[in-house]
Design a protein that fits this description.
By secondary structure, this protein is mainly alpha-helical. The protein has helices at 19-55, 70-93, 98-134, 152-187, 189-192, 194-203, 207-217, 227-249. It is 71% helix and 0% strand. It is elongated.
Length: 258
């Protein structure tokens, strides 16, 4: 792989992407596409087969696609770890500054989170249309920012923020292991996971609902704050987590491989 280092001029400053940053973004998106082009059709086919099987024996009373939002979380988390530990050293070794690599990674992460959120929206809209035709209730197991499968913008916001949280958290975990090694990074693992845990708590979606559900039944209710407060807190947490990733990786030593 050859990535030309950008010239050190004022033209590359500010919000304008350099040629090297654009190359990195395209390469990351291309690697993502290699997986998404077969993984997402499979992810769509599996719920259809599950729904068709269940419908043969009992009426369907809730959304099946809702559960499909779990695997993208953890796949993006693992992908971010791999990019930091495997791809960042390569681009830096080819003359790209750490700052440029981190900027490109941030842009690619936002684009990927939005793209994958859009695919989740397509699944919800399609499921909602099918359920309406068959007279099935499109009930959700967990709370969401959206009311049903046609609330496109709230769905984009929810999944986009969640996916971005898992990407940033994965980048932080990968950065800690690359910089500090296995022992010290493992000691920091729980604090490093806090961004995605906090986002799940604030949005009250996904696996976190299963954790706090028993507490609510015991009288320990944790209601979601007003939506504007939730969104502001989510943005603050994501910004702070991204800053920590930058601080961890901005001057990290690149390991030489013998």
């Amino acid at each position: 792989m050859s990535i030309e280092a950008p010239p050190r001029t004022a033209a590359g400053s500010g919000l304008r992407l350099t040629s090297a940053e654009s190359v990195i973004i395209r390469r990351v998106l291309a690697e993502m596409w290699k997986v998404a082009r077969w993984f997402w059709p499979a992810a769509l086919l599996i719920p259809i087969l599950i729904g068709a099987t269940i419908a043969q024996f009992t009426p369907i009373t809730k959304s099946i696609w809702e559960n499909a939002g779990q695997w993208p979380r953890w796949w993006l988390f693992a992908m971010a770890i791999a990019l930091v530990t495997g791809y960042l050293p390569i681009v830096v070794a080819h003359g790209v500054s750490r700052r440029a690599a981190l900027r490109a990674g941030a842009v690619a992460g936002v684009l990927i989170a939005l793209l994958w959120a859009g695919l989740m929206v397509v699944g919800h809209v399609g499921e909602r249309a099918i359920y309406q035709q068959l007279g099935w209730p499109d009930t959700m197991d967990t709370p969401h920012l959206f009311a049903d499968g046609y609330d496109v913008l709230p769905m984009l916001a929810e999944y986009g923020l969640i996916f971005l949280a898992y990407l940033i958290t994965g980048a932080l975990v990968g950065g800690l292991y690359y910089r500090f090694g296995a022992i010290r990074a493992t000691l920091l693992l729980l604090p490093a996971m806090l961004p995605m845990v906090a986002i799940e708590m604030l949005l009250s979606t996904g696996w976190y609902t299963g954790l706090y559900g028993p507490l609510n039944h015991r009288g320990m209710d944790f209601p979601r704050p007003p939506l504007i407060v939730v969104m502001l807190m989510v943005l603050v947490i994501l910004s702070f987590a991204a800053l920590v990733v930058h601080l961890v990786l901005r001057d990290v030593s690149i390991h030489s491989k013998k």
